[in-house]
Amino acid sequence: MAKKVFIITGDYSADIHASAVARELKKLIPDVIIEGVGESNLENAGVKLFRNHEKMGKMGLTPKTIIEHFSLGLDIIKYLKEEFRPDLVLLIDYGAFNLQISKALKKANIKTFFFIPPQIWASRKYRLKTIKKNIDKVLTIFPFEKEFYEAEGINSAYVGHPIVSELPVCNKKEEFFAKHNLDINKKLIGIFPGSRTFEIKFLLNIFLGAAKIIEKTIPDVQIVFSHAESLKDDAFSVPYKKIKGENHELLAYSDALILASGTVALEAAMYNTPMLIAYRGPLFFYLIYLLVRNIKRACLVNIITKKDYIDEYLMFDATEEKISKGIIEILNNPKKREYILKGCAKTRELLGTKHCVEEVAKIIKNELIGE
User: Fold this and answer.
1) pLDDT band for position 123 (cuts 50, 70, 90)
2) What pTM did the predictor assign?
3) CB 368, CB 3: distance < 8 Å
4) Which residues of the chain form CATH 3.40.50.2000?
């Protein structure tokens, strides 16, 4: 009898990862039946969609979103128990929703794996109880996560980070500079003010102020702002060149980077580009973060290496003076630059070379039909 797998995603990036896993799994088990919750990427991989993301990924804890999520959860569980009866459910990211779903899956005795689990090593450690009780295997994307879960007696496997196999190669610097009328002989400062509207609100003016100080101190530089693809074209304006849709190239070809904290720092490390990170948000949410956090580091390079290679300027430390001073030091101090690049190299070493989705598919295949 053909094996059945159900995949639950909640946003665009998870849908992409899910589609890649589905394709790999079909190579390993040609007659596997896969259904799930997702969007076009998953559907194009030959997966029958039970629901799309229409009622998922909405911001804000409103009565409507709570009711919609609760209703969707009930529909999924009813379908899995009474009709589809999967051999395994793969939860991908979308922690709050998927952890609640896992409780019902456990009661229904349905084997459940979690790929890209919630970052409880960073905050909300109380979620460990839910994972330990309801998840059969956690598939982690950071090497230190496996140690974290195993210390708690939770079955886990490090499958590699998606970024290792998915990040595009950038080796056409001259073409990029010519296309955007940049001077190949001048230092390039790439500035990434965030991919969300509220990040632009809190960080843009600070990053602009830092850019102006850098320009006055080191006149022979050129500054380019990244415009995230998730933002509307008119999301912000700056008196500098702004590039949208070529973020990876800007990360790879810059001499130094000012980054809003996030996965972008990991991408910069993969491209071996010196950086600093800065972040500021609403004070209320920052105070909550201080209460629930488990670690004091924010940059993924520092978290993965367990060492402070990258300067972090958070909340009240995120000032134009401190940020500009940090970038000037990266440009003028070879030892500082060398230290940062050492951290980038260590990060790449620790992440390894595993092809993430291939590893996930192999683990699922072994669970379903053995080696």
Assistant:
1) low
2) 0.85
3) yes
4) 4-160+354-369, 173-351
